[in-house]
Amino acid sequence: MYNIEWRGRRYNPKDWQAGDVINQCISSATSCLYGVTEAAILAAGYAPAIGFLHSGKPLSFVYDIADIIKFDTVVPAAFKVASNHPKQPDREVRIACREAFRKDKTLQRLIPLIEEILSAGEITPPKPYEDAQPPALPEPESIGDSGHRTS
User: Fold this and answer.
1) Which ranges in the chain belong to alpha helices (H)?
2) Distance CA 134, CA 49 (A)
């Protein structure tokens, strides 16, 4: 589709220049996706480290969720950028991902996707313990919806 010779996913995180352009683009694109996905997970009140496929990493849940949409969003953007042989692949990919996220409304899609995935097992969230305490500082009344901060 993008006329790129693909030799497989090969990169060295300690030596950025060692990778070919497409691998640099894919690395940059997935990094962008991980940032947006972590923001959605935190906004929904979940822990980024508690994954169900990936485990043992601070962003395991981020990787789980990002992998679901990666090939629909950032991988095509990475290949498109790489096909133009950019001088600054990481910069060009960030711009392409930003546009793809805006156009696709990725952040708006992620929270419902997270909820759908977590409810797929028909497991209800645990009820609070009888002796559970409310927050020490009550939430101030907000002028926005539940996704906006008050201060």
Assistant:
1) 21-43, 60-69, 74-83, 89-104, 106-119
2) 24
Q: Select from 37, 31, 1, 34 the least CA-distant residue to 91.
A: 31
Quick: pLDDT tens for 51-101: 888 989 999 999 999 999 999 999 999 999 999 999 999 999 999 999 999
Separation of alpha carbons 107 and 33, rounded Å: 10
**85's tokens:** 């042989």
Residue type (1 letter), 48: P
Q: CB-based contacts of 148: which residues, under 8 Å, 6+ apart?
A: 142
Single out the residue of 50, 70, 59, 69 nearest to residue 112, CA to CA: 69
> How many alpha carbons fall within 13 Å on the CB side of residue 5?
1
DSSP label of 18: G
Per the structure block, which two tokens stand in for 111? Answer: 């929270």
